[in-house]
Structures are given as structure tokens and as C-alpha cells.
Q: What sequence folds into this?
């Protein structure tokens, strides 16, 4: 497998470079689990200043409501109640982070870095070998590690598998929001964000979408394919909260009816 390493000052810059590299350097091979082909590399992209604007790319599946909901899923666990309901997944990232066999890994990370700013032990494990080996859709996120260096909080993420065009931007944005929440609680500045995907891929069904993304990146200045997060986009995300909360309540009501 090809190893690719890209960096960008902002999240969209790093993400766009990763998309371009996958398109230009990815190998096309079979993906028998999903009965189609895929284009794939091993990818590491580094965001030097995760909160620098513009933070939002136009080149991702969904919009402000979907992004707000995903951030709430990761940080607040709004869909944790669906774990094991028989019609959904067997995990959420939030539950694995704060309730891993009853252990809150986020609180551990914060306490560990308060104990020792130089620590290399501030690690959260997402993979659960009691569940994931037997799951048809095991967790893609495997591992998160946080460091304080030069007074800044750095985050390093490992994905076993990452859908480049449908998931990786939203993954990275939400993980950066988690990084920020931890940095705020520690009273330190944000450092860089590193996103490692051992399989960074695009499925055959999305080859045309990948090509559209690449054309958008090649043919437009970055300001035409991005938004600033602070201001209008953040306000639109926050305005979607009632809709998201209503959706969550509807899902809870449907589950009660089934039970």
C-alpha cells in the first residue's frame, strides 16, 4: 500500500490535499466485503492550526445540520441510546470514549495531562475486542492520543478504515471539536491535529463524487470552496439544534414502541 503524508494550515487545506492524493496516487483494487472496487492509500494528514479559518469545506456529504448532529454524536452522545437496539450499531464513539467498560477515558486524559503536562499516557482506545471482531460494521476509529507540548494540546487519531469522500472531513471536524473541548478544560491553546487512516479509500459507487471533488479543488481558489465556521455557518449549525433534538426524541419514541 502507498503511504501518503500531507499537511495544511487549515482543515480544508489538509483535507483537500488528502483527497487529491487519493485520486492521483490511490490503487484501485477489490473490496469484497462490499462487493465493489475501491481506490485506496494509507493516509496521514496534518492540520497545523485546526481552528484557523476557513474551517468548513463545501466538499463533503451533508451540510450544517448533518455536521452539527455529528459533532453532538461524538461530544454529547445524543445517539448512545441506540446502542444494541437491534436496528442500529453496536457502539458509538462517544460511548467508547466515556464508558469503556465503565471507564471514562476523556476524564482520564484530562486528569493525566493535569498530573503531568509531559505525559505520553493520555490515550483513549476505541476498539473493543469483545465486540468489534464479531460486528459486520466494526468501529473505524481505533485510537486517540493527546499531548501537551509547548503549552499546546496536540491530538493524534488512528483510523483502521476511513471513507475519504463520505466521512473523513466530518470525522476530523468533530475530533477537532473534541480536542478543543479538552484544551479548554485544561486551559491550554490548541496544537496541531493529525489524522491517520491506514485505509483511506473511496468506494466505486463514489468514484464520480471523488472526481467532482477533485475538479472543484483544481478549478477554484480555496475561498470559493470553503466557508468560515465562526459567524454565519456556526449560527446555521446552532439554529439546527431544535430539528436535531426533535429527531432524537422521535428515535427514542420509536424505540419505546418497539420495546
A:
Amino acid at each position: 500500500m502507498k503511504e501518503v503524508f500531507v499537511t495544511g494550515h487549515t482543515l480544508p487545506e489538509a483535507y483537500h490535499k488528502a483527497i487529491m492524493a487519493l485520486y492521483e496516487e490511490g490503487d484501485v483494487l477489490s473490496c469484497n466485503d462490499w462487493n465493489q472496487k475501491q481506490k485506496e492509500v494509507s493516509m496521514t494528514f496534518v492540520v497545523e492550526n485546526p481552528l484557523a479559518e476557513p474551517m468548513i469545506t463545501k466538499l463533503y456529504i451533508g451540510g450544517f445540520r448533518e455536521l452539527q448532529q455529528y459533532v453532538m454524536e461524538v461530544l454529547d452522545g445524543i445517539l448512545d441510546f441506540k446502542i444494541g437496539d437491534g436496528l442500529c450499531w453496536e457502539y458509538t464513539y462517544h460511548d467508547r470514549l466515556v464508558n469503556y467498560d465503565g471507564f471514562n477515558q476523556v476524564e482520564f486524559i484530562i486528569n493525566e495531562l493535569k498530573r503531568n503536562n509531559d505525559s505520553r499516557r493520555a490515550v483513549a482506545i476505541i476498539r473493543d475486542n469483545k465486540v468489534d471482531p464479531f460486528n459486520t460494521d466494526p468501529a473505524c476509529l481505533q485510537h486517540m492520543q493527546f499531548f501537551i507540548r509547548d503549552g499546546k494540546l496536540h491530538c493524534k487519531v488512528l483510523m483502521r478504515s476511513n471513507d475519504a469522500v463520505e466521512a473523513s472531513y466530518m470525522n476530523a471536524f468533530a475530533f477537532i471539536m473534541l480536542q478543543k473541548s479538552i484544551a479548554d478544560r485544561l486551559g491550554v491553546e490548541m496544537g496541531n491535529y493529525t489524522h491517520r487512516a491506514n485505509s483511506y479509500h473511496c468506494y466505486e459507487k463514489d468514484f464520480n463524487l471523488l472526481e467532482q471533488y477533485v475538479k472543484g479543488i483544481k478549478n477554484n481558489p480555496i475561498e470559493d470552496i470553503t466557508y468560515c465556521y465562526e459567524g454565519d455557518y456556526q449560527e446555521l449549525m446552532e439554529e439546527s439544534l431544535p430539528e436535531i433534538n426533535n429527531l432524537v426524541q422521535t428515535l427514542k419514541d420509536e424505540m419505546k414502541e418497539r420495546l
User: Anything to note?
Assistant: The mean pLDDT is 96. Residues 168-186 form the longest helix (19 residues). The two ends are 46 Å apart (CA to CA). The chain is about 40% helix and 25% strand.
